[in-house]
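Lab manual, section 2.4: Encoding a predicted structure.

Procedure: take the sequence of the chain (361 residues), apply the prediction step described in section 2.3, and record the output as structure tokens. A sample record is shown.
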Amino acid sequence: RLSQYSFRYMSKLFPVAIIDKSSQPYQFRNEPQKSFDKITIKSGKDTVTFENYLKKLHIASFIVVHKGAIVYEKYFSMLPEDQHTLQSVTKVITSTIITSLINEKKIDINQPIERYLVELKGTDWQGISVKDILNMRSGMDSYSIDFSTGPFTNPKHKNYQLESALGILPKADNTPESAFQFIAGLKKDKAPGLKAEYSNINTFVLGWLAERVTGKKYADLVSERIWKPMGASCNAYVCLSDKGIPWPHGGISATLRDLARFGMLYTNSEIRSRNESLISFSQLKEIFEAPPIGHSPIPFKWAYQWDLASDGILMKSGFGGQALFIHPEMETVIAYYNYIDKDWTIDNMISETALAEILKA
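Recorded output:
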């Protein structure tokens, strides 16, 4: 119950910066598809309707958009106007800011990070390309999704130290005074480019990079480059540390419709209509053609911060069961919010079977 509440009201728990909505909000067409009422999903020993399947997963809200029309939308434990946490789905909003800056030639993806962040010159970050950081291949943090090492519970863990410095996790005796100095002082786990390893640290550096290159604050960058141009109908916000530092790896909260509206930016028609300014077709191709990591039952890629990209579908998930699926060619976006169980390692994501049934419908 605590996560069900806090995931809807992060702004009551942390300082935030507002991400401004558009003065001309995008108007979704409302075209509910009766075919969704015919979907049945096998869940355990039972076969249930699609709506009851979502309820079993205690999903808070769910939307499907096809060619700019809402074809399915349900709210179970939140309201349409609620700004729900995206958790790590925030990462692909951050990466979209970076791709937009690359497409404007304000960032060269192949340049080393210290060209833009001079504080990293002479550190273990020196020589690591923007591309390797964008693709989770920096080599700076190998253990963030190895829960046995305690990324959220062990004060000695790199992720714990970053997130305690940002006020996300409880402070410890060794909590860094400065998140930026902490990042600069990190030591490599391995050489860059060798292996994709999911890490909040990489995304934090991308947020720092975006602010440095533009001279603007993270929330303003999301507003100016994404939220306003896409026609967001509601303000969003990003959580901050007590020193005003944003969480570019997991801090955004937004309405479900605006998350779906963001997803539409990755559909072929929108990429074309925006002249490939936010994301280009060649960048999209890179994401899909990136090799999956080895020795995993799930073919994670983490290229450009996206979790999965196969069978025509892009996917990014967030802690507790937040998700964004995009089929660029089918012009289809699926988005939903959830909250966590007592066992927080259970994410209650929809199954591949359910995803296939949605696309079929």
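Check your result against the sample. The mean pLDDT is 96.
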